[in-house]
């Protein structure tokens, strides 16, 4: 969770200031104090430059990547599947996070002053909370939808529709708008004196009672980090187990094919495709190749298309498992340090400030922002179908006289039936890397 007030409050007391004062008192000489001051100033400038560079890079990647996703999913009606509806909501929330979080965190940290006014303080903190909440809930919704579509495909087809996805998205947004109401209510500008006798301001929630602050951060820790993380681990863990079982079954079938080369193997394999529920569906053309091979080719040539298809399924399933591990790992890597820091600060403010003031909390904050640029890469740009849709979209924009979207072929984008689309998209969108 992005706690802007916490960061700006810590930023008012840079770590270097206390270090310089203690050094002067210990050494008692002006020369040592001067050397330490120069070293500290040089280090501070380097850290400022590094922070500006990293924040700018993450900001540009987040804005550019999420805008591309929004454009592709909005322009192309064929891409409006159940999964992509949640990905569109995730892209919008990540874009909000980039726009409302990064500039209004970096600038006050560098200036040690919130210069945007009281009204903007309430607005920014509210949108910060909303964006993070929607992003987290969207990740949980995607995990649950994938689990249902992949591991219970027959049951999920009855309710996994776009209208159902729109209802879930609407509930997600309304719930986030309601949960984050305390931010605009309690956020305010708090004045404090700077070292040059200038009064600056920090934008932070004024809870008035320390117990309220502790309860708030504990609730955020559980409902926006711990519970979503556990749900994602369970959902993706069960999916990985099913995919692993499919891999084992496919390997057994591959070994059997070396011994048995008759029609029975084909029957067993096709029956597995229907019952496993975890296959990455491939193009409709390979089965046609098998039929033609049966009618006009020797038995040795007949086995080659099935072998290639089997290898493709194995590789696709292994990529899915790796990608699911990456998704869960990135969620915890991005958000655990910030939630830990916020909870620590709520219960022991002094020790948290001493340990995390200045650059440490700024980089922890930046780590949480990287989720806004990592999500587009994991969930969309590593998907072959999305990349083709992206190229087709911009090709049609640059060459409007070419009917390039149709030329891409309906089969690649929407070449599966409505009943099988959910199963196909949930196992491919955001999980399958380059083929």
TrEMBL record:
Family: Belongs to the G-protein coupled receptor 1 family.
Source domain of life: Eukaryota
Localization per record: Cell membrane
TM region(s), chain numbering: 52-74, 86-106, 126-144, 165-186, 215-239, 320-339, 359-381
Listed GO MF terms: gastrin receptor activity; neuropeptide receptor activity
Function: Receptor for gastrin and cholecystokinin. The CCK-B receptors occur throughout the central nervous system where they modulate anxiety, analgesia, arousal, and neuroleptic activity. This receptor mediates its action by association with G proteins that activate a phosphatidylinositol-calcium second messenger system.
Origin organism lineage: Eukaryota, Metazoa, Chordata, Craniata, Vertebrata
InterPro entries registered for this protein in UniProt: Cholcskin_rcpt, Gastrin_rcpt, GPCR_Rhodpsn, GPCR_Rhodpsn_7TM
Domain G-protein coupled receptors family 1 profile: from-to ranges: 65-379
Assigned keywords, A-Z: Cell membrane, Disulfide bond, G-protein coupled receptor, Glycoprotein, Lipoprotein, Membrane, Palmitate, Receptor, Transducer, Transmembrane, Transmembrane helix
Signal peptide positions (record): none
Cellular component, GO, one term: plasma membrane
PANTHER family: G-PROTEIN COUPLED RECEPTOR, GASTRIN_CHOLECYSTOKININ TYPE B RECEPTOR
Topological type in the membrane: Multi-pass membrane protein
Keyword Cell division found: no
Protein name: Gastrin/cholecystokinin type B receptor
